[in-house]
Amino acid sequence: MTVLYTAEVTSSGDGRKGRVSSSDGVLxxxxxxxKEVGGSGERTNPEQLFAAGxxxxxxxxxxxxxxxxxxxxxxxxxxxxxxxLERDDSGYGISADLTVRMPGVAAQAARELVxxxxxxxxxxxxxxxxxxxxxxxxx
Length: 139
Fold this sequence. Notes:
By secondary structure, the chain is an alpha+beta fold. 31% of the residues lie in helices and 28% in strands. The protein has three helices and six strands. It has a three-stranded antiparallel beta sheet, with no helix packed on it. A three-stranded mixed beta sheet has the order 4-5-6. Strand 4 and strand 5 (91-101) form a beta hairpin. The protein is globular, with a radius of gyration of 17 Å. The model has no long low-confidence stretch (mean pLDDT 95).
């Protein structure tokens, strides 16, 4: 593969309760763990950042798939990503659930577009076989 872009972000401070900043200065955020795992929940956390990236990436892959299939999107589709921090006897892990809304697109066509998007989305490809990803089509 040919590298098209490289995002460089440095974590400093106390990891989940520290800070992340990008080399270009566009991203500069304080982090905190969610309340559910002992943090204050007052700042963003790694799971929210992953969910934001996954939702945006999948949304782009969905729109590209619709264009290629010549499916007209009457209304703007939306993708919601829920990233779950989990723990078992071997340690921590994540899983993800995506909810895709495609108003005005027939159910079968929407399912086909979601399958195409899931096959091409770089986030889906990166986690395939390692992270459980559920995808739901919402009305």
